[in-house]
Amino acid sequence: MTFAFNFLHVLIPAVLALAAGVANAAGFQRLNLPMDLNGPGLQGAVWTPCAEPAGEIKVGRVAIQGVQGCKLPEGRYPLIVLSHGSAGSYLSHHDTAAALADAGFVVAAINHVGDNALDKSRQGYLSIFSTRPREMRRLIDYMTGVWPDKASLDAEKIGFFGFSRGGYTGLVLAGAAPDLAAGLAICADQPSLPMCRDIAAGKVPQQPYPADARIKAAVIADPLNVFSEGALKRVTLPIQLWVSARGGEGVSPASVEAVRQGLGAAPDYQMAAGAGHYVFLAPCSADQAEALPGICRDEAGVDRSAFHQALNAQVTAFFKARLQ
Questions:
Q1: pLDDT of 94-103, one tens digit each?
Q2: Which end of the chain is more exposed for a tag (fewer CB within 10 A), N or C?
Q3: The whole model's pTM is what?
Q4: Structural domains of the chain ordered from first start
């Protein structure tokens, strides 16, 4: 169902539903996956249910609400893995991660190597399109096989949240193989990017893009669409698909609509009315807003904090219905 947010109608009951979750705060802990045969070390974080009151945790310019190192209450919890957009970080959606943890999920996110806020060395290369899904599979492997609290996870209930290139990553893991040879929208404006030069020269490496059957449901926000209709038809797991009304960064409402029409099962379709691509990022702290106005400033009439209260409630409700 597509709708533009009427906050008086949608936000109040959604927030009340979210407030009825099982915990008082989100536990927060750093995550470090060691280098192995499948790739370099990965840095990230885990948000967990927590029975203690939340406080503010500063990580660089980012201010998050949570409890550092909170003991995970007894129980078995579904796992949500989170994939950020290009040049983002494991903190890009920290408020959504905390909301899910408050509601009884364990949430894990990592920085994608060479395509994150601290390291953009591979941002313009085609290789990133194959390494991103592999890194998310490694994250699931680690959480279900190595993480100290792995016994508290229900490995049969795994969800995925992804934004922009992270949305692309989720669609690949859900079964859609990309068609990079068909081109990327960004190449119309930046043909000198290494990946655009390679596509123009016909140098698109053939890569396996296996699905990950462990993922049972996914929330995909403003995904980068590099898929044929036939590839998208292979995606049949439950999807909540979000689109911003104005798009950005190579994503447009039309390209997301093509994803919607192509999916093998109709998604739960939601729109961020009047907003651009970056509205899906967590509301910025004062330090972030001063340093990064391009991603922190929204269009006139858009209240990112209010939007995120509704977004987080809708995302939580979707995962509860499919995983809990």
A1: 999 999 999 9
A2: N
A3: 0.92
A4: 27-323 (3.40.50.1820)
